[in-house]
Write a structure and sequence with these properties.
By secondary structure, the protein is of the alpha+beta class. Among the domains are: 26-211, Beta-Lactamase, CATH 3.30.450; 373-475 and 585-613, Mu homology domain, subdomain B (Immunoglobulin-like), CATH 2.60.40; 477-580, Immunoglobulin-like, CATH 2.60.40.1170. 25% of the residues lie in helices and 28% in strands. The chain has a nine-stranded mixed β-sheet with strand order 15-17-13-12-28-25-20-23-22, with no helix packed on it. Strand 3 and strand 4 form a beta hairpin. It starts with 25 loop residues before the first strand and ends with a strand. The relative contact order is 0.08. Residues 370-618 form the MHD domain. Residues 1-29, 252-276 have a biased composition (Polar residues). InterPro entries: AP2_Mu_C_sf, Coatomer_dsu, Longin-like_dom_sf, MHD.
Length: 618
C-alpha cells in the first residue's frame, strides 16, 4: 500500500503506563462535558486498544481518549476505497507503524457503499468517519470511548480541515488543497487534542490560536512605524532647511555647495583695509552680506557682532556707564561700521548703470526711550503669492513681551482689544501665558495675572501673549507685486509693479528683488517711479529699493521696466520682497496699562515691529 504523509515518521507520545496486567475498570474521567472509561489499551493513531508491548513484554495501560485519525482519499465510487492511501495522519499515543498501517488499510474494506452509518467497529477499535467530497476524515478510538464526544471532535476537525484547505472561503476541497496546507491542519489538530485528551476549544478559538496575534507585537510594530515616520519627517525637515540655506547663500552671492565660506572671506579680504584679516569669522560674513545687499534689507535688530568694526580710544568708561549709554552709542557704532563698507564701494568696479541706495542707518525707526514698563510687539510675515496675484500660503505670527524695571509696578493690567473684536475672516488664534487670567483675556481683552500670583517678573522679559494666523485671505496682503515678463525675438521685457494694499500702514526699507538670467546685463527702459535700483552681479539679481511706501509719502504704487537678453520667462522668478513696519497686520495694539489697586494709568513705552520672514512671488 502506498503511503503519503507530510512527515517521514509518525509522532508518538508515551502513554501513562502501568506494570499491572489485565483489564481493570476504573472510575470515569471527565473531559470537557463528557466522560469516558479507562481500560488497559494501547493508542492506535488516535485510538487505544489492547496490545502487547514488544519492547518490554508488558501490557501498556493507557487512558482511552478520543483521538484524531487521518484524511484518506477515495475514488469516485466507494467500492474503490480499497486502493485509497492516507494523505496525512496524526497519532497521539505510542503505536508501531505497522499496526497503524494495518488499521488504515482495513478501513476501506470495511466501508460499505450502501451503508448510511459513519461508525464502524473492528479489531477492538472504532472507526468514526465522515465523507468530505473526495476525501474521508477518519477518527480511530477504542470501543469504550464516548461516542458523542467522538462525533463532536470529528465535526470540529472536519471544519478545521475544510476552512484551512479552502483558504477560509468555504466550499469543496481536494487532495491538492489538503497537501498544500497539511502542516497547518496538523497544527490545528494539535490544538484540539493534546496528548490524546480533547481540549475544550471552539473553531473560533483555534482560529485565534493559529493567527498567533500578539498585542505587544502590534504595539512594537506601531512604535517602529512611528519611529520610521518621524525619521522621514526629520529628513524632510533637514532637507528643507538645507535647501533654504542654499537659497540664502545663493542670494548673498556665496557658493552654496562649498564646504566652508572661505571664498566669501577671500573676496572680502581683498576689498578691506589690512586690518580686515584680524576680524573674527562672523565679522567678514556680516560685512559681506551688508556689502552686496542694500540697506533696507537689513533688519533693525542690533547684534554684538556689529561692534567689531568700531575704532578704539573712545567710550572706554566703566561697565555701568557703557550699559547706561548703550542706546546713545548705537548710532555711533553704525557710523563706524559703515566706514569700511564705504571704502569698499569706492574701490569696487561699478557695473553698468546702477543707482546704489544710500546706506544711512540700519533701522529707519527711532529707538524709544524705555519706561519702567516696556512692551515689545513683534510680528513675522510669511507669504507666498502666485504669478496671478493669488495667495498660495500665508502665515502671520506675533508675540507680546512685557519688561518691568520697577518692582512697584509688577502688578498691572494691560488692556488690548478683546478677541471677539477681531475680524472673523482672518481667523486669528491667541494663546496666553499659563499665569495669565484666561477669562479676563477672553471676555475683556485684559492681560493680568491669575488670583494668588504676586506679580510679573522684574528685570527680565516675559512673553504674555502670542497669536497666529494662517490661510489664503488676500485682504491681509500689505503690498502686492506684479511681474510681467514677455519674450520677443530673444529679448525679454520685464515690467515690475507694486501697489500698497493696506493703506493704513507705512512700509519702510521696501526691497523688491528679481532674479536675472546668469551673465545678463539688463537695460533699463523705464526708470523706477519711486526709489532706486541696483544690480548685484554676484547674485544675478536686480534690487529695487523704496525707502517708504505709504499714503503720506505718495508712494502707494510704482513701476519699473527693463529688457534683458533671453527667452526664458521663468528665469525671473521667484521675486523676493522685504520690508519693515511699525504697525502690525493683525490689529493687536496696546490700549492702556493700569494699576489694578487704584485703577490709575501707568506710563509705558512700546516697541512695535512688523518684519518679513519670507515673501516670494513664485
Amino acid at each position: 500500500m502506498s503511503y503519503r504523509s507530510t512527515s517521514s515518521a509518525f509522532r508518538s507520545f508515551s502513554p501513562h503506563q502501568s506494570s499491572q496486567k489485565g483489564a481493570n475498570r476504573t472510575p470515569t474521567r471527565s473531559i470537557g462535558s463528557s466522560s469516558i472509561w479507562s481500560s488497559d489499551v494501547l493508542a492506535v493513531v488516535s485510538s487505544t486498544c489492547p496490545h502487547s508491548n514488544r519492547r518490554n513484554g508488558t501490557m501498556a495501560r493507557a487512558h482511552p481518549r478520543p483521538q484524531l485519525g487521518s484524511l484518506i482519499p477515495k475514488e469516485p465510487r466507494l467500492c474503490t476505497l480499497t486502493n485509497g492511501a492516507p494523505l496525512l495522519s496524526r497519532q497521539f499515543l505510542g503505536l508501531p507503524r505497522s499496526r497503524l498501517e494495518s488499521l488504515l488499510a482495513s478501513f476501506p474494506r470495511l466501508v460499505s457503499p450502501t451503508s448510511e452509518h459513519t461508525v464502524l467497529e473492528a479489531s477492538g477499535v472504532r472507526f468514526v468517519y465522515t465523507p468530505l467530497e473526495d476525501l474521508y476524515v477518519l477518527l480511530i478510538t477504542n470501543t469504550q470511548s464516548n461516542i458523542l464526544l467522538d462525533l463532536s471532535t470529528l465535526s470540529l476537525v472536519t471544519r478545521i480541515a475544510t476552512e484551512l484547505g479552502s483558504g477560509g472561503r468555504g466550499g469543496a476541497i481536494g487532495e491538492m488543497d489538503v497537501m498544500r496546507v497539511s502542516f497547518e491542519i496538523l497544527s490545528a489538530w494539535d490544538e484540539v487534542i493534546s496528548l490524546g485528551w480533547r481540549e475544550n476549544v471552539s473553531l473560533q478559538q483555534v482560529r485565534s490560536i493559529l493567527e498567533m496575534e500578539s498585542h505587544e507585537e502590534k504595539i512594537q510594530e506601531i512604535i517602529a512605524r512611528n519611529k520610521e515616520h518621524e525619521a522621514k519627517e526629520e529628513l524632510k525637515r533637514r532637507a528643507k532647511q538645507l535647501e533654504l540655506q542654499r537659497r540664502e547663500m545663493t542670494r548673498r552671492g556665496q557658493n552654496p555647495y562649498s564646504t566652508n565660506s572661505s571664498s566669501g572671506f577671500t573676496s572680502q579680504n581683498n576689498s578691506y583695509t589690512p586690518s580686515a584679516p584680524s576680524y573674527d569669522a562672523p565679522a567678514p560674513q556680516r560685512s559681506y552680506n551688508e556689502e552686496h545687499a542694500p540697506a533696507p534689507t537689513t533688519k533693525p535688530f542690533k547684534t554684538k557682532g556689529m561692534q567689531l568694526g568700531a575704532k578704539g580710544g573712545k567710550n572706554n568708561t566703566g561697565l555701568a556707564q557703557a550699559l547706561d549709554g548703550l542706546d546713545a552709542e548705537e548710532p555711533l557704532l553704525m557710523q563706524r561700521h559703515e566706514e569700511p563698507q564705504e571704502q569698499h564701494y569706492s574701490s569696487a568696479p561699478s557695473p553698468a548703470p546702477v543707482a546704489a541706495p544710500a546706506l544711512t542707518d540700519v533701522s529707519p525707526f527711532e529707538v524709544p526711550e524705555q519706561q519702567d514698563v516696556h512692551l515689545v510687539v513683534r510680528e513675522s510675515l510669511t507669504l507666498e503669492l502666485n504669478r496671478d496675484g493669488g495667495v498660495d500660503s500665508l502665515s502671520l505670527k506675533g508675540d507680546l513681551d512685557l519688561r518691568i524695571a520697577d518692582p512697584a509696578k509688577a502688578v498691572l493690567v494691560i488692556a488690548l482689544p478683546p478677541p471677539s473684536s477681531y475680524d472673523k475672516a482672518i481667523d486669528l488664534q491667541f494663546k496666553t501665558h499659563p499665569n495669565v487670567d484666561k477669562n479676563a483675556w477672553a471676555q475683556r481683552g485684559e492681560i493680568k495675572l491669575k488670583e494668588g500670583k504676586k506679580g510679573f517678573p522684574v528685570g527680565q522679559g516675559l512673553g504674555v501673549l502670542k497669536w497666529r494666523m494662517t490661510g489664503t485671505d488676500e485682504s491681509v496682503i500689505p503690498i502686492s507685486i506684479n511681474c510681467w515678463p514677455s519674450s520677443d525675438n530673444g529679448i525679454c521685457t520685464v515690467n515690475l509693479e507694486y501697489e500698497l494694499e493696506n493703506t493704513s500702514i507705512s512700509l519702510h526699507n521696501v526691497l523688491v528683488s528679481i532674479a536675472l538670467p546668469p551673465g545678463s546685463q539688463p537695460a533699463l527702459s523705464e526708470a523706477p517711479s519711486n526709489g532706486s535700483y541696483s544690480l548685484n552681479p554676484e547674485t544675478s539679481r536686480l534690487d529695487w529699493v523704496i525707502d517708504e511706501v505709504s499714503v503720506a509719502a505718495g508712494t502707494t504704487s510704482g513701476s519699473l521696466e527693463f529688457e534683458v537678453d533671453g527667452d526664458d520667462v521663468d528665469a525671473f522668478f521667484p521675486v523676493v520682497v522685504d520690508f519693515v513696519s511699525q504697525k502690525g497686520l493683525s490689529g493687536v495694539e496696546i490700549l492702556s496699562v493700569t494699576n489694578p489697586a487704584d485703577q490709575s494709568q501707568v506710563d509705558f513705552s512700546i516697541d512695535s515691529l512688523l518684519a518679513v520672514d519670507k515673501y516670494e512671488v513664485v
